[in-house]
Amino acid sequence: MAVADEVAAFARERRYAEPTQQRWSQLSDTDAAALLRLAQPLQLSENQLRDLWQWLEDVAQRDQLTLAAVLESSALKLVMRSSLGRAEKIKAFKSKLRELRFPQLVAAEQQARQLISALELPRQIVVELPAHLEGESIRFSITATTSAALQQAATALLAASAQPQCTELFRLLEEAP
Amino acid sequence: MTSAAVVCETESRDTAWQPSSVWIESGEEDSPLAQRVRSRVGKSPVHAIDDLGTIARPSNFTEGKRQLVLQRHRGSFLHHCPAGVTGMVCCNYLVANFASNCPYDCTYCFLQEYIANNPVTKLFTNPQDGLAEIDAVLRAHPERTFRLGTGELADSLALDWLTDLSCELVPFFAERRNAVLELKTKSTCIDNLLRLEPKDRVVVSWSVNAPQVVRQEEHGAPSLEERAAAARRVQAAGYKVGFHFDPLVAHDGWEEGYRQAITTLLNKLDSRRVAWISLGSLRLSPTLKQAIRGRKDRGHILTGELVPGADGKERVWRGMRVKMYRKMLQWLREADAALPLYICMEPSGVWENVFGEAPSDREVAQRLVWQAT
């Protein structure tokens, strides 16, 4: 079966809207087939496909690659070859693609997580960074079932706040490395 | 109002822009502006039209720019700058709209969203009504000093070769003590300005960018060098000038690009006669983003690391914005530590990070007025 026919059959089966099918049909055969190799095994909904496609297209434009070449990147292929279930695989694929799409932001987020981890906070303390690091505050929340546990967590938090990693964490939020 | 006494027939134009057709609202054919446009517009067909609503809708925004409509403006000319939204430090700027749309075709232009439903280029045939409205506001508040500009819905000068609007605006503001007019442009259409006297209380500012952004995103606009040369001539003629690095775009090589832009602009310019320099990050609403994606030539701006902010607009993530602002601040301060700088559409926390202070809206506005006068 020709690529265009395969795409059309899949899009019909998944009930993709006409504009999406139209957009797909405008891709080169190589790109269209590569996108099908993503959408088919993951049984992507139209919205899921559209989101991933947009990022793929952005990366392709930025790096002057074809869509197929972006999909050939080792990080993405590794996810597709993994034995994860469908939902987990979609999540992992999106996460890896986000690394490609937002490399500096993701690097800063990873650095922030390392710094949080270095604070060695007890499990009762949850640290929340602002979404996409778009904000100036970090939320530290303590969950405690006794006053002793609260005191213990608060003491640990106070000690962590004096660590250089804590200063570095806030500095990271203020300005990109 | 009649045209100013200064003879303002200009030869300068910096773009191959030519309207595909000109539509004049019935009854406005003999207005001074319509007469000027008709005499200068060249071979474009000119039509009188009773109902402007019957003009065929352009197939896209870029095409719409080439339909020139001359019409009476029936609403208010004067508005508060739409950048002044809750949560952002605002410079209390007023905008006066004597036209709508622009001959340049910048990929990031917010007009693609703002006037999406009516993307023709409009010139208003009754600028005297706008000036009367401004005059009334200035007279009603003699205790205040206003900063206002004509470069929100249009480039202030790009079509001046066609309209001579500057010949009415500059003398008008030169006579008023409680206002400063900003003519904001990307153009080199400055011949009228060079001839006008007096020129007090007018700041001519250029929207500028790194050379790569100019090349890739600002279609039809003069190069950075051309804008810099125009700024030098305008300053030498006695005006204060300004620059707007807006939108700052985090592209590959942005540090070198913006540093080079600063050097190009400030070279041979008297930095003491720079009224202000603003910095603003690229910001895209969901609708604008969609409009850019629909363009034939959409440039590279959507490939940046843009994330949604509290106001619903996407910007490059905050840490990167602050990094860019700080670098710009450093390079500009190295050029002249006294350059008056501000940032546009950012919350007070970002001001604090960049300048070490978060002034009130009023303070920002006062400083800018003071710098300009």
Describe the overall structure.
The complex is a heterodimer of chains A (177) and B (373). Chain A is mainly α and 177 residues long. Chain A has helices spanning 3-13, 18-25, 29-42, 46-63, 67-71, 74-81, 86-101, 103-118, 147-161, 164-174; strands spanning 125-128, 139-142. In chain A, strands 1-2 form a two-stranded antiparallel ribbon. In chain A, helix 1 runs antiparallel to helix 2 (18-25), helix 1 runs parallel beside helix 3 (29-42) and helix 7 packs across helix 8. The longest helix of chain A is centred in the N-terminal third of the chain and has 18 residues, at 46-63. The N and C termini of chain A lie far apart (50 Å). Chain B has 373 residues and is α/β, with parallel strands linked by helices. Chain B is 34% helix and 21% strand. Chain B contains 14 helices and 18 strands. Chain B has helices at residues 32-40, 61-64, 111-114, 127-140, 160-163, 166-174, 191-195, 211-217, 224-236, 254-266, 286-293, 318-335, 348-355, 361-372, and strands spanning 21-25, 46-49, 67-71, 78-80, 93-96, 99-100, 105-106, 121-124, 146-149, 179-185, 202-208, 218-219, 240-248, 274-281, 283-284, 306-308, 314-316, 341-343. In chain B, the strands form four sheets. In chain B, strands 4-5-9-10-11-13-14-18 form an eight-stranded mixed sheet, with helices on both faces. In chain B, strands 2-1-3-8-6 form a five-stranded mixed sheet, with helices on one face. In chain B, strands 15-17-16 form a three-stranded antiparallel sheet. In chain B, helix 1 (32-40) links the parallel strand 1 and strand 2 (46-49). In chain B, helix 9 (224-236) packs parallel to helix 10, helix 10 (254-266) packs parallel to helix 12 (318-335) and helix 12 packs across helix 13. Chain B is globular. Mean pLDDT of chain B is 92; it is low at 1-9. Chains A and B meet through helix 4, helix 8 and helix 10 of A and helix 12 of B.
